[in-house]
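ligand=adenosine-5'-triphosphate
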Amino acid sequence: MAKSKSVYVCSECGAQSPQWLGRCPGCGKFGTLVEEIAESPAPQKAAKRERSGSFARPVPLKEVREEHFARIPSGIAELDVVLGGGIVPGSLVLVGGDPGIGKSTLLTEVAAHLSKTQKVLYVSAEESCSQVKLRCTRLGLGGSSMLLLNETCLEDIEEAIGDETVVVIDSIQAVYTSALSSAAGSVGQVRECAGKLQRIAKSRGITFFIVGHVTKEGALAGPKVLEHIMDTVLYFEGEKEDNYKILRAYKNRFGSVQEVGVFEMTGEGIFGVSDYSDIFLSPSRGEAAGCCVTPAETGNRCMMVELQTLLSKTAFGMPRRMPLGIDSNKLIVLIAVLEKRCGIPFYNQDVYLNAMGGIRLNEPAVDLSVCAALAGAYKNRPIDADCAVFGEVGLTGEARGVTFAEKRVNECVKMGFKKVVFPAKNFKSVKKFEDKIELVPVRTVGEMIRKLFPEQKKEQAEE
Ligand SMILES: Nc1ncnc2c1ncn2[C@@H]1O[C@H](COP(=O)(O)OP(=O)(O)OP(=O)(O)O)[C@@H](O)[C@H]1O
Ligand SMILES: [Mg+2]
């Protein structure tokens, strides 16, 4: 009997090595190489590949027929937004997230909704059919016509798929292929299973929703190889105790990757939240100093997000900079600009910053709002509850124009804000909102601070 060969595969990057190494030669991480049984086919046989047999000829671009993919609504509006407008038939969608966050719940709801118009198969490799049924009953979906399958072998699953157009695999880590002898959930198995599912999806036009578990470090287990194969990779994020979960597109071949969907988890199921004002805005804003609201652009939608800052005297040594939701380097740069250009000292202050609702803001348009919140915290003066600020800040302290200014001001108007502070460069594009909201264009950070916190006037009044 031929002796089975083993290879050592990095659980982080998927690099292979014939012997065990303490450090992965691919990504340089320590202790990540895991033993796997090498695939059985003899290399001599695999070396000779047959020609495809199809005689494809180059086609002029103009003559290529455009195929219009009619997107299918998933039944959950927030999910459709994240997917870029609905489900693309024949695509592979990976839904990743921490244990217990609600991946199965979300996909059960999607499957139940789709089963009204399509043939849907829900493959539960982790739970028994009766457990899935229990969940369906709890969610009020007991009458759904979807098919359930409790199976872990991929070949059997493939055989069981008949004329279904949508298949849910829950989860990829629990499924194994008999072609490999390593355990289900290992790098080789996950990669091979995902590859096989991709071939089925593309050849038979089946849409796959695949659940993927997240490792301790936050990466999808069965490393990056999984993300390459998928058309769309979605991450479910949020604290376990928190009812609100954020679904974020990490990769999307058919839409923007910056989309976020907000969901609320309840005993009756998971619901998309379209009015997210109480998630990203605190009800007491306008009372405490150090808070500022900004219309942030995330993907195709604009959201009003509150930034909260807190200053506390540094006890000893280096002052701390602790931003949650924005890049820490950005905070350091903005603090330097405020110190140098506006004379606000932070050298003996620990700075804490939090974007409410756990949202991540990566765009430069939040700069001016961060500066406004910090200046307010330093002056211990709150900004009006119905005032919003957006704009980029340059190192010279100038307020630079940003994209989607019109959309941002429109969102401010929609959400009932009365005043918006923004870079003067954007004035032309938002002038039409003049009669709906007070427009305050500013050229520099200093000008913004003077307009938000008009000190002289107050002092004169006191005199
Ligand atoms: N009977 C119940 N009543 C209310 N909420 C429940 C009930 N059962 C489960 N839940 C909620 O559903 C969540 C689990 O959802 P779900 O099984 O979809 O998570 P998951 O992401 O698929 O987890 P796993 O990774 O373990 O498969 C729990 O966190 C819990 O809040
Ligand atoms: Mg689950």
